[in-house]
Amino acid sequence: MNKISIIAVCIGALAVTACSSDVKRTPGKIYMPDMAYSRAVETYSDPRELQAEGINYNARPVAGTVARGEEVIYKQPADTTGGYMASAALKNPLPLLNEVDSKEAERLYLINCGICHGTKLDGNGPLYKGGDGPFPAKPATLVGDPLYAAMAEGTMFYSITYGRNLMGPHASQLSPKQRWMVVHYIKAKQREASGESAPVAAEAAPAADSTAK
User: Fold this and answer.
1) What tens digit of pLDDT does each residue of 19-35 get?
2) What percent helix, strand, coil does the chain show, rounded to 5?
3) How far apart are CA 213 and CA 210, in angstroms?
4) Looking at residue 207, what is its pLDDT?
5) Positions of the region Disordered (predicted)?
6) Taking CA 37 as the corner, what is the angle to CA 32 and CA 42, rounded to the nearest 5 degrees?
7) How many Cβ atoms from other residues are within 10 Å of residue 160's Cβ?
8) CA–CA separation, 40 vs 63, rounded Å?
9) Counting Cβ atoms within 10 Å, is residue 159 exposed (0-12), middle (13-18) or buried (19+)?
10) What is the pLDDT of residues 116-152, one digit of tens each?
11) Residue 107, Cβ neighbours under 10 Å: how many?
12) CA 32 → CA 26, 52, 188, distances in Å?
């Protein structure tokens, strides 16, 4: 029998063996069966049906857990007045801005706040324009008004996040980190106007992505 015949016989035998219904195939031993055969839970599954199958699922977060990116501390309460008052206890979690971050904070302020509060933080932005602008009510004077000079950092953050009076919320425009940077910038300008010495900032660092949470 020549080589071609031998190869043909081997291929034929292999094909017959592969197609045989008597061959039992198993995946072998599974190291972590609970992961290999996980019981997936759909978002809109009926908890009663799952519980009937022995799956404890009620579509609620685990007690004490926090969703990634959720601002639990700053969550708008039903009592908005109470939330505004309580926000005074919040402290700015960011360190004092170095030169690089101060430039970024100024940029964020000018883009998002300057149109109302003005480049000099005097409440005379393009929308008011000394009373000649399209906005009839003068925005808050952030520098020069004792009321805002005494405003707590947390209260500023709360106001930027949820809005206050005629000012709209900016949580969709600015990340939490960016809002705190703007608060730092406003406070720095207030200290500068009052002649108060500025606290020592951290050493200059490479520019960070201010969109990060």
Assistant:
1) 655 555 666 677 777 67
2) 45, 0, 55
3) 8
4) 47
5) 191-213
6) 130
7) 24
8) 21
9) buried
10) 999 999 999 999 988 888 888 999 999 999 999 999 9
11) 14
12) 16, 25, 56
Q: Which domains does the chain have, with CATH numbers?
A: 80-194 (1.10.760.10)
Pair 140, 123: CB distance under 8 Å:
yes
How many angstroms separate the CA atoms of 139 and 149, rounded? 15
Alpha-carbon span 25 to 34, nearest angstrom: 21
| Tens-digit pLDDT profile for residues 150-192 | 999 999 999 999 898 889 899 889 999 999 999 999 999 999 9
Could you report the per-residue pLDDT of 31-88, keeping only the tens digit for each? 777 677 766 656 666 778 777 877 777 767 676 666 666 655 555 555 566 778 888 9
Match 């950092």 to its residue by tokens: 153
DSSP string for 111-126: HHTHHHH-TTSSS--T
DSSP codes joined into one string, 141-170:
-TTT-HHHHS--HHHHHHHHHH-BTTBPP-
Tokens 């000018």 found at: 110
CB 96 within 8 A of CB 200: yes
174 is written with which tokens? 């600015």
